[in-house]
Amino acid sequence: MKHAFPLLLLTTLAATPALSQNMDDIVQLDVLDGGRTERGTYLGALRLTLADGWKTYWRAPGDAGIPPRFDWGASRNLGGIDITWPTPEIHDQNGLRSIGYTDQLVLPVEITPRNANKPVRLRGEMELGICKDVCIPSTLDFDHKLDAEAGRHPAIAAAFAQRPYSGKEAGVTSVTCRLQPTTQGVRIEAQITMPSAGGTEVAIFEPGDPAIWAAPAETRRQGNTLISTSEFVTSSNGPMALDRSEIRITVLGAKHSVDIQGCPAAPG
């Protein structure tokens, strides 16, 4: 399998002609309030608004993307945070596949306060790549005191509705993975018994370790079974330790997407 590592060098070089452009004209970030839940958590969202024709990337950005990163360290009374990623789009870029969003991304976050009796302030940075004819690495700041009394926000509700189905919701009845060492890393073959997600299905593997990269998967169907193969490699081509419970597979289809967590060994 031929590897095409994320084109960080390409994006850095390509960014130079566009750096003089005002970033506020390309992308804006604001924080949305969704109020407090019955569990005592806060609902909010980071909303990215992109200029026409620009796109940004999903958590697993594909061959030609820059993965987003978050720094919540300056926040106050932040006990925990859970991010829900809406279903992304697949884009072809110079013969390579990238995965992300155009126009707007509303990224719901559910925040557990460290102290339930004190307010929560979200303050930090989001590092991301945004692309059109060129790609620009960017860092956006946010600083917002969450409103516990805010009502249901329609944009947050819509983003939750766009999340992938769980395996149970999608009718997944079996998931197994076979691992085989290769000269560069580990070949993985997943067999997923599930109804079709519609159209040409694409499977995306996430190894669960940021030091391990997953090659674009080759996916086909045999009746009710989706078979997808990829290869896991490290940047140093050295040994790796895989935790099967951390392997994540997202199946993107024309009708819906499916988020599958964990991939046990095939029996026998």
Tell me what you see in this structure.
The protein is mainly beta. The chain folds into two domains: 8-161, Immunoglobulin-like; 165-261, Immunoglobulin-like, CATH 2.60.40. 6% of the residues lie in helices and 49% in strands. The protein has two helices and 19 strands. The protein has helices at residues 8-15, 154-161; strands at 27-36, 42-50, 55-62, 69-71, 78-83, 89-93, 96-102, 104-113, 121-131, 135-145, 165-166, 174-181, 185-193, 202-206, 212-214, 218-222, 225-234, 248-252, 257-261. The strands form four sheets. Strands 3, 4, 6, 7, 9 and 10 form a six-stranded antiparallel β-sheet that branches. Strands 12, 13, 15, 16 and 17 form a five-stranded antiparallel β-sheet that branches. A four-stranded antiparallel β-sheet has the order 1-2-8-5, covered by helices on one side. It is globular, with a radius of gyration of 20 Å. Mean pLDDT is 90; it is low at 1-20. Residues 44-139 form the Thiol:disulfide interchange protein DsbD N-terminal domain. Residues 1-20 form the signal peptide. Keywords: Signal.
Brief synopsis:
The protein is mostly beta strands and 268 residues long. The chain contains two helices and 19 strands.
Give descriptors for this structure:
19 strands; Immunoglobulin-like; globular; mainly beta; 49% strand; 268 residues; 2 domains; disordered N terminus
